[in-house]
Amino acid sequence: MPAITNHLPTSELQALDAAHHMHPFTAGGELAAKGARVITRANGVFLHDSEGNEILDGMAGLWCVNIGYGRGELADVAARQMRELPYYNTFFQTTHVPAIALTQKIAELAPGDLNHVFFAGSGSEANDTNLRMVRTYWAIKGKPDKHIVISRKNAYHGSSVGSGSLGGMTAMHAQGGLPIPGIVHIDQPNWWAEGGSMSREEFGVSRAKQLEVAILEHGEDKVAAFIAEPIQGAGGVIIPPETYWPEIQRICDKYDILLIADEVICGFGRTGNWFGSQTLGIKPHIMTIAKGLSSGYQPIGGSIVCDEVAEVIGSGEFNHGYTYSGHPVAAAVALENLRILEEENVLDHVRDVAMPALHEMWHGLADHPLVGETTITGMMGSLALTPHKDSRAKFAMDAGTAGFMCRERCFANNLVMRHVYDRMVISPPLIITPDEIAEIGRRARTALDECYVQLK
Ligand code: PLP
């Protein structure tokens, strides 16, 4: 067999890929029919494919490449760390410098008394940790019946059995026997799709109150925790009404329910602060982190845990851990990523330069005949595609068909944007410049125009 390199023709790479590679979240038929786009390299906010196209990445990979592509410093750190200590675990009373240094840095950046980190290899694993950790916490405190975790429909918390159950994606629950018992889902604060005649403010409170109803229905003594993304990402960048989170916080405090903020997307600058909880005024007991922690250069995730929960969990042995918890190479790379975010003032760039330009461009698309609402917080936004702007109407065809068409038109115009049903979402690298943002706007408008013609 010839060596498989970037020099093989695209069609050959696609055939080999389709023959042996099972892709996540991809319909097999689509792959066989069209072949996958082969990405060969990337720099800054641009991807390059095997056909010589330069593609603007409006999604920062999967919401993760916060510092942009091509930062050689991270490669140097990885190589150095691999030579020095490529692997050792953190089980059974061992540790190493990269894990120690990274936990110090995360504890310094995280708000309040979120001072302790339990590492995982991904966001899914970290949420599995959280599920076991909150139940273990209450068991140690003499309340083993406090085991139910309340989550939300259309939430995304990962793809493992535990995290997929915490998530509220019906298409995922339909496969593989999810959700596991002990998880309850309330409705999401998606005003555009589900708000009916309520104002955004009224709707925010009414959706938050569902948490109270669920707690009372199942019993305060049975509910361990509530988990939510500060802003739902994979569900379509659902920015909650301003009334939502204060009410959720009040309810968690009142009923002694642990609050888990899943910061896998919102963390590390995406919303304009280090964490989405700071932007939305949330005080969680645990935060889930991954993605922007290493800007996707290495697989690493974790749970940032408050003093009280860490103390209780640490009073015994938590029978939980992953071979790659605190992996030295991943930890060293994550630390270098955080150094770049901090020393290059990336959050200042977001707040002063990128956010204003992105918001202006995004809201500028609102006049397009296919666009209903445009919403955006920090560097994550979405727009609703609709056949009738004023009535918030849905398309007559299956949900997601228009979104899929629009995503394809974006791709054809060398722009990566994702669709979630009929919402288009955007989440570019944080280091993006105003000129690059303007280019996203031009390509997105062209894609919307083409989609409009196709839908007529
Ligand atoms: N939580 C949220 C909010 C996510 O968006 C994701 C991934 O998109 C996850 C958890 C799962 O993370 P991972 O894919 O690293 O397992």
TrEMBL record:
InterPro entries: Aminotrans_3, Aminotrans_3_PPA_site, PyrdxlP-dep_Trfase, PyrdxlP-dep_Trfase_major, PyrdxlP-dep_Trfase_small. Signal peptide: none annotated. The keyword Ligase does not apply. GO terms for molecular function: adenosylmethionine-8-amino-7-oxononanoate transaminase activity; pyridoxal phosphate binding. SUPFAM superfamilies: PLP-dependent transferases. GO terms for biological process: biotin biosynthetic process; gamma-aminobutyric acid metabolic process. Keywords: Aminotransferase, Pyridoxal phosphate, Transferase. Its cofactor is pyridoxal 5'-phosphate. This is Aspartate aminotransferase family protein. It comes from Tateyamaria omphalii.
